[in-house]
Amino acid sequence: MARDFVRAFNESIGVNTSGRLQVEDVDATGLAERFGTPLYVISENQIYANVKKWHDAFASRYPRSEILFATKANNNLTVRRIFTLAGAGGDAFGPGELYLTLLAGTDPDRVVLNGFNKRDQEIRMAVEAGAAIHLDAPDELDDVIRVARDLGMRARIGMRTRLLLHDLDDLEADWPPGIKIGPGVREINKFGIALDDLETVCEHALRAPDVELVGFHHHAGRWAPDLRVHEAVVKDQMEAAGVLKDRFGWVPDYFDFGGGFAWGRPEGHGPMGFDRGSPTADEFAEVMTALFREALDAHGLGEPRLMIEPGRGISSDIGILLSRVGIRKSFSDVGQTWIGLDASENHLLNILSGGFYYHPVVTDRVNETPTETVNLGDPLCWFGNLALNVQLPHVERGDVVAFLDTGAYCESKSLQFNAMPRPATVLVSGSKTELITEREVLQDVTRRFRLPARLMPEPTSPADAIAELSTT
Q1: Other C-beta atoms within 10 Å of 107: how many?
Q2: Is the bond into 176 cis (omega within 30 degrees of 0)?
């Protein structure tokens, strides 16, 4: 549904005629007042729009294309369910994500399990469900065969490759900075089966009655918003598939080219705010499907399924994080003004781990001309710099600041550092709002801890008074 935004951040989140941030048909400031802050907000209709955009881009060029959603990007069960209803399959990493993906009703035939050093629990779950297991090491094949045999079932498997990508030896990554992508892939990448081992694994798998070798997978990861990265992946993966076809006659049922697609906006996003733009879904699809079709014909590989997991490109802009302003203070010696927010790097962990930038706006004055340059700090006991030297309208205690594009890798990475409870999450669909993650309270922070009886405080101790206060 098209909305009459005077400034649109996407189809569902933008600025209304009053200059206020709106998620679908709901005022963002009103959400903060109703549900409290910090608060993750997810747009249901933006999920549908993003899945359709990526599916249409690829399927219009290669009809057997399928879009996968990486549960690691957002492991909220409702979010995963909506991606499933929108038509996305599932990329799961580890037993927790596989459980959530299947719990959300995702078709197991369109679910793949990735993982480094998989354990029996996740292998068993995948075999029983019928999801494909991507081998990440040669000896994982023996583990899968053993589990499948114990279950009396046949496991569906694929092979994740560790490509050398020599075509990228002179292409420099913007993150990690200063690294040439080809050498970087080879030197700091723990994932995948080495090309030297592929033939041995393939031969073993084709001879084993307990497994069915169905897929071929590679995941590049985000190195740079450059189509040459994905051109190199398709080229090298298809060459490897051609070798296996010539040697064993094996043709994969599907090729999964994973994710790592960069995504950005003009205001900045991603590592160091570098992602101020990226190739569109159509541009990715045009390059990748053309190379894919050419290689299929060249190697006689038929017309397998093509799986794409668009990474942040399909999930970053489905949500925002709302936060309320507390203190203001200035340091005249360095000319800085610091604004204290109740959101933190606990809720936007990629700021700490990847130097990410999330663009902030004042929710009730988004289009107002900035009047000050400020640093946005958080309540944690570390540097806690949510954003440095950002230009905003003047803000005071009680104002609400929204960080854009927090739909990916925010709630799923959130922490309890400093014993801070984690935020709630609200789903917006049109004018409807629904709580989909409950806000934690202090008791949730301590719920997993066990205090030995011999160390229990005395009944009249201050700890009892505090515990009593915290429950009232």
Answers
A1: 13
A2: yes
Q: How many angstroms from the chain centroid is the CA of residue 460?
A: 48
C-alpha distance from residue 459 to each of 64, 448, 456, 466 (Å): 67, 22, 9, 12
Q: In whole angstroms, give the CA distance from residue 202 to residue 123.
A: 19
pLDDT tens digits, 274-312:
999 899 999 999 999 999 999 999 999 999 999 999 999
End-to-end, the C-alpha distance of the chain in Å comes to 44
> CA angle, 144 as apex, 140 and 150 as ends, to 5°?
145
DSSP 3-state assignment of 46?
Answer: helix
Q: Name beta bridge partners: 65.
A: 306
Q: What is the pLDDT of residue 463?
A: 64
**Average model confidence (pLDDT) for the chain?**
95
- Pick the closest to residue 292 from 65, 36, 15, 43 (CA basis): 65
Instruction: For 7-16, write each residue's pLDDT tens digit.
Output: 999 999 999 9
Distance CA(398)–CA(401), nearest Å, equals 10
Model pLDDT for residues 316-339, shown as the tens digit of each residue: 999 999 999 999 999 999 999 999
Q: What are all long-range contacts of 329-336, with beta carbons under 8 Å and residues at least 24 apart?
A: 336/375
Structure tokens at 164: 């050398």
In the predicted structure, residue 343 carries a pLDDT above the cut 90: yes
- Predicted TM-score (pTM) of this structure: 0.96
Q: What is the CA radius of gyration of the chain?
A: 24
Q: What is the rounded CA–CA span in Å between residue 30 and residue 11?
A: 20
Active-site residues, by number, are 381
**Beta strands at 155-162 and 132-135: parallel, antiparallel or unpaired:** parallel
**pLDDT number for residue 176:** 84
Element (H, E) at 59: helix 44-59
